[in-house]
Amino acid sequence: MAIAPITGKLRKRFWLDVTSAFGLGIGAGYAYWYGVHLKSVERQENFYVKLEKERAAAAGNSA
Fold first, then answer.
1. Distance CA 57, CA 49 (A)
2. What b/e readout covers 14-51, taking b as 16+ CB neighbours within 10 angstroms?
3. Rounded CA gap, 8 and 46, in Å?
4. Where are the bilayer-spanning segments (predicted)?
5. What pTM, to 2 d.p., does this model score?
6. pLDDT tens readout for residues 8-63
7. CA 59 and chain centroid, separation
8. Positive/negative CA dihedral, 9, 14, 20, 23
């Protein structure tokens, strides 16, 4: 009684692994970009706007 060979299993598994990796990688990238990066950039921009306003106010008072 011989066991029948399993054909095509590796190829199917390979494409599942590749598509899962791309999907999870892209999802993690979007989560980082919108969850961490853009908030950090907004906080930085707000700091520089505030700093520029303070400098403009100080220059206006001394002139």
1. 12
2. eeeeeeeeeeeeeeeeeeeeeeeeeeeeeeeeeeeeee
3. 56
4. 14-33
5. 0.63
6. 777 778 888 999 999 999 999 999 999 999 999 999 999 999 999 999 999 887 65
7. 40
8. negative
Distance (Å, whole) CA 11 – CA 24 = 20
**Could you give the C-alpha distances from 59 to 23, 46, 50, 51, 52, in angstroms and in order?**
52, 20, 14, 12, 10
Longest Cα separation, the chain: 100
**Spans of all domains in the chain:** 31-63
